[in-house]
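Homework-ish question, so no full write-ups if that breaks the rules, but can someone show me the predicted structure for this set?
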Amino acid sequence: MESLELIGMISIIVAGATVGIGAPITAIGEGWAVSRAMGALAQQPDAAPVISRTLFIGLAMTESSAIYCFVVSMILIFANPFWNHFLGLAGG
Amino acid sequence: MTITPDAIVFWKLGPFPISATLVFTWAVMVLLAGGSWLVTRKLTGGTSVSRGQLLLEIVLNTIRGQIRDVVDTDADRYLPFIGTLFLFILVSNILVVVPGFQAPTGSLSTTTALALCVFVAVPVFGIMNQGLRGYLKTYLQPTWLMLPFNILSELTRTVSLSIRLFGNMMSGTMIAAIALAIAPLFFPTIMNVLGLLIGVIQAYIFSVLALVYIVSAARVHEEQPGGTHNDNKGGSIRGEP
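A: Not a homework solution, just the prediction itself:
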């Protein structure tokens, strides 16, 4: 197979797999964190500001791993360095 | 489809391309500085306060209250830096609703610059608070074995700070563009509203994380002699992936 075709195929498969594996695992972790925070809020409504602030910070940190997956898949699809390299070789 | 506003070049000024990121950063800067200048030109302390002054006072008091929740002591020391970061990111994220506006925070260059500001501010505030020796000692906490990990965490959290903001803002514009291609009637509007919410939350997250990093470097020494009675809320979150 042509190297360009191979790169395109593998890039798309891996881009889908990156988000497909990375996002659900992150979502499970975030759902777990939110459910624990809701439990804590129900038990101690007075501590709501502290709990929600810590929850937001924790969620943002957890969220960033899903965002990394998204950035990697976007790079694979729209700004793939290998694709551009071999495209340049084929064109020039 | 472009994943970053860096790729949109308006015109070239010699060797420097003036990209959309630069132009819209200037626009946000002009908006913030000009608006503040217009309002603070005629400040009054009496009972009749202009609307703009009320708005700015509310914004300032809210930011100061949020900082005080994390720091407990002198909030005003951190207010200029954290407040500037928050307002800049917030305004550039909210202005996405203006047609044609490309959020400067959707470019990795801007977010890297902001994260580098935090990277520099951590030692600056640390040295200001506890001197050079005291600051360098925080790298040896809890034991000297942690030295490489402390340095590594300093670097990785800068990277994660910049990529988090970039990824969130880029995903907003990306999802809107993809939704526009699939279901152009109603769906992109909902995604844009969600993008606005994410933008506000990310501005909050960025500034709170910056504050937590700065405070955690600035206050480790204070707890040393007094034991653990100074139970810190913000400083416990240190060394994140």
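Now go work out the reasoning yourself. Hint: Chain B is about 70% helix and 5% strand.
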